Amino acid sequence: MFKIFYPKEYIESVFMLTPEKLKGLGIDTIMFDIDNTLVPFYIRKATDEVKEYFESLAKEGINVCILSNSKRERTEDFICGLDIPYVYRARKPLNKGLNKLIKRMGVLPSHCLIVGDQIFTDVLVGNLNGIYSVLVKKADKRDEWITAVKRPFEKIVLFFYFRSLKNDKK
To answer: What is the assigned CATH class of domain 3-169?
Structure first.
């Protein structure tokens, strides 16, 4: 019933996505959400930790890009000084922003991974487009109001997701 909303994986932090893990999955491109995925929503710029992480992925041949529903100013503030492709106002889970980024990158969806903190945007757009979806524990317990209203519904999906994982292990 809820399977279209289930991520392929749930992780504590984006930093768990190592180049070795990504290559093992056949992934050469990783698409990141920004707010509460890479940094709390109130942090305006990429942290040194995020910059170093992006550099480490790039050194290993992993393409890094941003797919954000945020406004242009927010997205460009975050990536300032980073030479990575991005799409702002992607309108996830709709396909337009995703398709624009895939075309710009010249990559195959089957070789991409999308990581974000929201089921109804990040995970869903990935699942609808054949992209490996990863749900990450949100970077901060606070949310913007637009996200906060969706969290109770995400908890329902997560209940069934974790229950399905338990059942698969039996």
So the answer is: alpha beta
Cα–Cα distance for residue pair 68/31, rounded to 1 Å: 9
Backbone phi and psi for residue 108, each to the nearest 5 degrees, phi listed first: -95, 135
Handedness of CA 40, 64, 129, 115 (dihedral sign): negative
d(CA 123, CA 51): 24
Q: Where are the domains of the chain?
A: 3-169
Place of tokens 């504590």: 12
Of 15, 1, 17, nearest in space to 133 by CA: 17
| Of the candidates 52, 47, 40, 46, the residue with the CA atom closest to the CA atom of residue 66 | 46
User: d(Cα 101, Cα 114) in Å, to the nearest integer?
Assistant: 12
The tokens for 148 are: 């906060």
**Helical (H) or strand (E) element with 96:** helix 96-105
Cα 48 to the center of its chain, rounded Å: 19
pLDDT digits (tens, 9 = 90+) for 85-115: 999 999 999 999 999 999 999 999 999 999 9
List the Cα angle 101/134/119 in 5-degree steps: 90
pTM above 0.85, yes or no: yes
Sheet holding 63-67, edge to edge: 9-11, 132-136, 112-116, 29-32, 63-67, 86-87
Q: Give me 25's structure tokens.
A: 């999955």
